[in-house]
Amino acid sequence: MQSDLISILLGFIEGFALIISPCILPILPIVLASSLVSSKQRPLGIISGFTLTFALFAFFSRQLVQYTGIDVDAVRHLSYLILLLLGLTMISSYLSEKFGRLTQRLSQVGSAFPSVNNPQGGFYSGLFLGGLISIIWTPCAGPILAAVIVQTVIQKTTIISFFTLLAFALGAAVPMFIMAFYGRKLIDTFGFFKQKALLFRKILGVIIIASVGYMIYQEKGYSASFTIPETTVQLSTSLVDGLLIPYKAPAIEDIEAWINSPPLKINELKGKVVLIDFWTYSCINCVRTLPYLEDWYHKYRNKGLVIIGVHSPEFAFEKNLDNVRNAVKRDGILYPVALDNQFTTWRNYNNHYWPAHYLIDKQGEVVYQHFGEGLYDVTENNIRFLLGIDALPQEKQTATQSYSYLETPETYLGYARADRSLSPYLIHDKIAHYSFPEKLPLNAWALQGEWQVSEDKIIAGTSNASLKIHFKARKVFMVMSNPTGKPIRVQVLLNGKPLVNNQGKEVKNSSILVNRDSIYEVVNNKQFTSGLLQIITTEPGVEIYTFTFGN
């Protein structure tokens, strides 16, 4: 997250820094001339054209890299080197001069379009002129523009690239706006910027080098992932992050079965503090919250706390009572679990997430909500406050999970939720033959052999059917099921070799025995790294739903 914010801030600074480009001199008269006309539409058109052209150029520069199958890691590492060189170029007057000579001739292109700068024109002529100015300015911006293009390329997600690019465009538009609307006043003061241009460029170069150093520092693992810190639970005289407007707790209803308890009703639990946990047993994020829930259950069940795990299935096999009962036993869950197979209770709470926690006070009102992992100290603090416990010693909570901004996201294999940009072309609901591509980009997956792709899973159609995924994480998990009634073994390869040293707890002799419908830990690396994981079936019938990742 810190690296993303730095990239976005850098984008704005670099966009604004274009004002000190030496190529401002041949362009300045054109922009300032627009401030002399009475129409406000023409300056606005110039700004819009300038910003839009820059945005399209930088965005498609990133898309070109993304969709050509180039190794993103290689691009990222090369990009760091380029950014460092660009920073040095900005600091060194000699290097800046050499760089400028390579593109200086292009700055003269603007003189070939004198008719465009018609001061009587309106928005659309200004739009064209702004685009033309950006094209002229692009090579003259030199390392400044190159730096932001590289930054958009190395971003992991399109959304972060978009915000980096947007910040850059806004930064570039600010001086354009000022020049277009307040050109007369700027003429008197522009000499200051001209005189200090070299200093500003050097400062920007130092910022870029420092930022690259920070991003490299993160990627090497010193802070590439962040861990839920060890915290001390603080007593509070009020709820922390409580709801501004509490509401009556919705009913728990249409439950197919209860585990560890007879049926419970919310209206019969008044006088108790109730924690509703929406979960599903093959969700790794849910599984990672279980130790905290079990700890709270043991500490506070005799003090008035009731925990209810509402099991709302993500996949069809999670509706099976025996599967859920086995998972509850395997995970050591002792508090009540309700099977919400029809999602009635889920909808009653208007829930959208696994896991999700709803804390209900003794009057039967929902007073606190939390979605996802983390903030366990806040949740426990609120439990204690609602229970009226104010004399317990402070207790430390130690983190069990860390996260990385570079980690491969959860990957769904069924055609309904598969990311088309990272998956093969999928034939729906019938067996088809697939082949591996020559190269697999980071976060992408591919199939080989006979597979049937269903809405929420893929099914091996024959033995030796194979699945590959190019991941970046410390741990890899798979959700698999086996409806054949007999155990099926799948082989596991990491980077083309048997998985031995970094095997997950379900892997034995570089293979997994799929004998239950559940989540399986496949890879457990000692450090955060990338790799090519391959799964090979020994018999048809294995169903694979998703990959999840962790640190």
UniProtKB/TrEMBL annotation:
<keyword id="KW-0812">Transmembrane</keyword>
<feature type="transmembrane region" description="Helical">
    <location>
        <begin position="159"/>
        <end position="178"/>
    </location>
</feature>
<dbReference type="InterPro" id="IPR000866">
    <property type="entry name" value="AhpC/TSA"/>
</dbReference>
<dbReference type="GO" id="GO:0005886">
    <property type="term" value="C:plasma membrane"/>
</dbReference>
<dbReference type="InterPro" id="IPR003834">
    <property type="entry name" value="Cyt_c_assmbl_TM_dom"/>
</dbReference>
<feature type="domain" description="Thioredoxin">
    <location>
        <begin position="243"/>
        <end position="388"/>
    </location>
</feature>
<dbReference type="GO" id="GO:0017004">
    <property type="term" value="P:cytochrome complex assembly"/>
</dbReference>
<dbReference type="Pfam" id="PF17991">
    <property type="entry name" value="Thioredoxin_10"/>
</dbReference>
<keyword id="KW-1003">Cell membrane</keyword>
<protein>
    <submittedName>
        <fullName>Cytochrome c biogenesis protein CcdA</fullName>
    </submittedName>
</protein>
<feature type="transmembrane region" description="Helical">
    <location>
        <begin position="44"/>
        <end position="65"/>
    </location>
</feature>
<dbReference type="Pfam" id="PF02683">
    <property type="entry name" value="DsbD_TM"/>
</dbReference>
<dbReference type="InterPro" id="IPR036249">
    <property type="entry name" value="Thioredoxin-like_sf"/>
</dbReference>
<dbReference type="InterPro" id="IPR050553">
    <property type="entry name" value="Thioredoxin_ResA/DsbE_sf"/>
</dbReference>
<feature type="transmembrane region" description="Helical">
    <location>
        <begin position="77"/>
        <end position="95"/>
    </location>
</feature>
<dbReference type="Pfam" id="PF00578">
    <property type="entry name" value="AhpC-TSA"/>
</dbReference>
<keyword id="KW-1133">Transmembrane helix</keyword>
<feature type="transmembrane region" description="Helical">
    <location>
        <begin position="199"/>
        <end position="217"/>
    </location>
</feature>
<keyword id="KW-0201">Cytochrome c-type biogenesis</keyword>
<dbReference type="InterPro" id="IPR041017">
    <property type="entry name" value="Thioredoxin_10"/>
</dbReference>
<feature type="transmembrane region" description="Helical">
    <location>
        <begin position="6"/>
        <end position="32"/>
    </location>
</feature>
<dbReference type="InterPro" id="IPR013766">
    <property type="entry name" value="Thioredoxin_domain"/>
</dbReference>
<feature type="transmembrane region" description="Helical">
    <location>
        <begin position="127"/>
        <end position="153"/>
    </location>
</feature>
<keyword id="KW-0472">Membrane</keyword>
